[in-house]
Every structure is written in C-alpha cells, then in structure tokens.
Design a protein that fits this description.
This protein is mainly α and about 60 residues long. About 25% of the residues lie in helices and about 0% in strands. The chain has one domain. The chain has three helices and no strands. The longest helix has 7 residues.
Length: about 60
C-alpha cells in the first residue's frame, strides 16, 4: 500500500507501546526475546498488567 498523500507533510507521529514487561519497569518488550528477562520473571508480571488506564480516545485528544 502506498503512503497517503498527507504523510510527508504530517511532521508528528506518536506510538504508544506498553505491555506485560512494563509492570517491573523493563524498558522494552525485546528484553524477554533477547534473554535479558528470564521467562519466569516475565510471566510473573502477568497478574500486574491490567491496562486499567487504557483510554486511547483521551490520549488522542491530549496529543
């Protein structure tokens, strides 16, 4: 799919990425893939990740 005509003039892009790894403050999700965070530690974070503050409409208004 080609880029939309407006894309080259947009000047701003925001990508919000968070997940299980954020519970312990791990800087990014690749730390599990690369072995920096062992599987057991990664999986212990599951109960702490609830995405309870997930509100993309409010985020879009803010941006």
């Amino acid at each position: 799919m080609p880029m939309q005509p407006w894309f080259s003039d947009a000047k701003l892009g925001i990508f919000i990425h968070y997940g299980v790894y954020a519970v312990d403050g791990v800087p990014e999700s690749w730390s599990f893939y690369t072995g920096q965070v062992p599987h057991e530690r990664y999986m212990r974070q599951l109960d702490g990740f609830t995405a309870s503050r997930y509100d993309p409409e409010s985020w879009a208004e803010l941006f």
